[in-house]
Amino acid sequence: MKYFKIYIISFLTIFGISCSDFLEEKPRDEISIDQYFETPAHAENAVNSLYRNGAPQMYSSGGVYSGTRILLGQYMTGFFDNEYKGQEPHIQNAQQLTLNGINLDEYLSGIWGDLYLGISRANNAIKYIPETPGLDTEQSNKLMAEAKFYRAFGYYFLVRLFGDVPLIEEPYESLENLFVPRSSVNEVYDLITSDLEFAVNSGGLPEASMVNNGYRITQGTVASLLAEVYLTMGGYPLETNKYTEAAQMARKVINSNVYSLTQHDFDVEGELIPERSAYNKIRNEEALANEYVYLIEYFVGISTSVYPQWSYPVSFASDVKYAITNSAYQPVKEFLWGYNKDIDLRMQEKQYYHSSFEANDGSIVEFPMTPFIWHDDEALFETANSGKDLRAYSYADVLLIAAEAIAKSEGVTAEAVDYLTQVRKRAYWELDEATIKSELSGLSADEFIEEVWKERYRELVFDFKLWFDMVRTRKYPKTSETGNGEIDFVNFVGQANTWGKTFETKHLLLPLPERELQRNPSLKQNEGY
């Protein structure tokens, strides 16, 4: 049974200071800043709001037509399509690389504003939690760890999307210093790592999965994000050697023995049971505790998921309970070429993807590959409401971070080979594990790292990592229609995407929304826009 804790918070409203003190009674329907953080419950509520606001909105804000915000970079790669892109300008501009701060002003302003709103709420919590009466040290540290995690998560999105951004560490409580200039990428990452290091080392968070911790972040959640942050810092634009630290954090998660890769079920003759594969267990949420390191929680009646509606094309709306279906995350053929369709289980029907539907008359109707991993039988055919949680960080991701970071800092060790093999063996279920290890062990460090990138491309497609991997490595995964899963990593700048549009250096960052430039005269547009 799932232990849902959806955090519904009506956050505080800050009143301005009146020039008259004739009204001394405290308001009963709103909470002013001088009334808040008077009890432990206030501090807890302030932190609870972060689970739904700020960075989590990258995964949840959006709709069946537009896709969620996390898909914007995926559209820019050229590897994913959306059947409703004709009415969604942000998708067309992303695919065609014609986006700028004006034609995507409203869309980008929504991302910018919500991320800073989450940061503002985190700043408020971080300032006042230590002063809250009745909070003991353990409670205070744990709440501070959660607040700092979400502040870091928000800035991590901002710095990767926009580069230099205003660095705000205190709550706004006056009209002074409203126009904050952009801080350097280095400074932003310094705050991100400082917040996450506090959370993982001093927060007293439990060593448990989120699911087994009442859907609250844990040591593994923070360490996984910090491992990825260090890995990202090793790439563009910082190119700071933090691979040893990335490996250390990934090992912390691995060695906790909290997580594991879900395995396939086989029949008595040793044949794979397709509907009991690891990927179908993940789809059916049988693997929440061990596979999901960080998840976005949904619950029918409170916060429902839009992702199952992307399991079928628009033309199949009449076959399901939903009024609308949409291939909002439709992998194009060039992306699917990155899988070896003969030996990779993820490419087999009704594993990662599906391309057929059995109609009421028993006939089989075929359609282009769409995500099967989000397929929800009950929601699609009975209720039109889904409470399936979304995996944002997975244990497979941690293994691949560890493999890359170790290869970068220590070489192609047996440990690095083992971590990559674990992910690859599950996908290539018929291959011998010893053979996989032997082939990987004979590679140079650069060759091995490219093999890690290939598995990140294939395995983490539903964790939405591809665009950020392309930016940090400045490499574009060029595939071949040979059908053997060949991927050649070429320079990002100068390469055309599948829509025939050429990436320029400016595309490594998004433009700042025009309205933010108008509101804050201290800001300047990113170069090239």
Brief write-up:
It contains 19 helices and twelve strands.
Structure write-up:
With 529 residues, this protein is mainly α. Among the domains are: 39-183 and 504-529, Serine Threonine Protein Phosphatase 5, Tetratricopeptide repeat; 298-388, no CATH class. Helix content is 40%, strand content 9%. The chain has 19 helices and twelve strands. The protein has helices spanning 40-48, 57-60, 71-76, 89-95, 105-128, 137-162, 185-202, 219-233, 243-254, 278-283, 288-291, 333-336, 377-383, 395-409, 414-427, 433-441, 445-459, 466-473, 514-519, and strands at 62-63, 67-68, 80-81, 165-166, 182-183, 292-296, 330-331, 353-358, 364-371, 390-394, 475-479, 487-491. The strands form six sheets. It has a two-stranded antiparallel ribbon with strand order 1-2. The chain has a two-stranded antiparallel sheet with strand order 3-7. A hairpin with a 5-residue loop joins strand 8 and strand 9. Helix 9 runs antiparallel to helix 14 (395-409), helix 14 runs antiparallel to helix 15 and helix 15 runs parallel beside helix 17. The longest helix has 26 residues, at 137-162. The termini are far apart. Mean pLDDT is 93; it is low at 3-30.
Shape-level CATH architecture of the domain at 39-183 and 504-529:
Alpha Horseshoe
CATH C-level class of the domain at 39-183 and 504-529: Mainly Alpha
* Strand order in space, largest sheet: 1-2
Rg, nearest Å: 23 Å
- Poorly predicted regions are 3-30
Structural class: mainly alpha
Query: What level of helicity do the residues show?
Result: 25-40%
Main sheet summary: 2 strands, antiparallel
Number of helices: 19
**Would you tell me the overall average pLDDT?**
93
CATH topology of the domain at 39-183 and 504-529: Serine Threonine Protein Phosphatase 5, Tetratricopeptide repeat
What best-fitting shape do the alpha-carbon axes yield?
Answer: globular
> Tally of extended strands?
12
Distance between the termini: 50 Å
What fraction strand? 5-15%
